[in-house]
Amino acid sequence: MEMTEKLKFKLCILGDASVGKTSLIHHYCEGYFRESYLSTIGVAFLTKTLDMTINNRDFNVTLQLWDIGGQSIFQKIRANYLKGSQGAFILFDVSNKNTLMHIDDWIVELTRALNVKDMSKLPLVVIGNKIDLDFDSRLKKRAAEFLKKQYKIEIPITYTSAKTGKGMNEVFELITKLMIKNTNIR
Ligand code: G3D
Ligand code: MG
């Protein structure tokens, strides 16, 4: 009988201040939404373990989730914390169009820090968060077009609410699958 394969991944969560990075990882790891978190000063991390079966193979994955402060003052130290990440989330806030326009800057910072030459080899999911709030319904189409134009590869975009938990498990499963595929383990 096949054994469960144990894996460990470092996943970093990036995006502008206040898009919901801390809320999303806390809700996912602790199972509830807290109204208020201190603005993340620098860096913090939480871990979460999940079981997953891919092509009849069982995996037990420990995710180390790095909550990296979005303020530009941290840019210099951020590069050091990003190193060694096997995957990334880049968040924007669907109720704040500016945060979508900054996705590009986050991708540049990430690929530089990780020295990624080929974007198709980087497990990355862009997340539009706060879908429980009212937002312009055309934004989803615009976000997809924006990413497609900037990058030749298809970057997955998903939508979540860190408040209600909608889309949350799905997006963590998606990035975990992408990271497992990227390890090429036999
Ligand atoms: P950050 O870690 O990206 O800086 P936070 O963002 O997780 O600190 O969240 C910033 C603010 O947005 C917080 O509100 C938080 O409660 C709120 N928030 C985060 N995710 C969601 C969401 O999915 N829906 C809604 N409605 N609000 C969300 P405050 O009031 O503390 O600034
Ligand atoms: Mg935070």
Q: What is the C-alpha radius of gyration, as a whole number of Å? A: 16 Å
Runs in which pLDDT lies below 50 for 5 or more consecutive residues are none
CATH architecture: 3-Layer(aba) Sandwich
Question: Judging from the principal axes of the Cα atoms, what is the shape?
Answer: globular
**H-E string:** EHEEHEHHEHEH
* Count of domain modules: 1
- End-to-end separation in angstroms reads 16 Å
What amount of the residues lies in strands? 25-35%
Q: Report the average pLDDT across residues.
A: 89
User: In CATH's first tier, which class applies?
Assistant: Alpha Beta
Bound compounds: guanosine-3'-monophosphate-5'-diphosphate, magnesium ion
Structural class of the secondary elements? alpha/beta
CATH superfamily: P-loop containing nucleotide triphosphate hydrolases
Number of helices: 6
Give the strand order of the largest sheet, numbering strands 1, 2, ... along the chain.
Answer: 2-3-1-4-5-6
Mind explaining what this structure looks like?
The longest helix is centred in the C-terminal third of the chain and has 16 residues, at 168-183. This protein has a single domain (5-182), classed as 3-Layer(aba) Sandwich (Rossmann fold). It is an alpha/beta fold and 186 residues long. It has helices at residues 21-30, 75-82, 97-101, 103-114, 139-150, 168-183, and strands at residues 5-15, 43-54, 57-68, 87-93, 124-129, 157-160. Strands 2-3-1-4-5-6 form a six-stranded mixed beta sheet, with helices on both faces. The model has no long low-confidence stretch (mean pLDDT 89). A hairpin with a 2-residue loop joins strand 2 (43-54) and strand 3. The chain is globular. The chain starts with a strand and ends with a helix. It binds guanosine-3'-monophosphate-5'-diphosphate and magnesium ion. Guanosine-3'-monophosphate-5'-diphosphate (G3D) is lined by residues 15, 17-23, 35-37, 40, 70, 129-130, 132-133, 161-163.
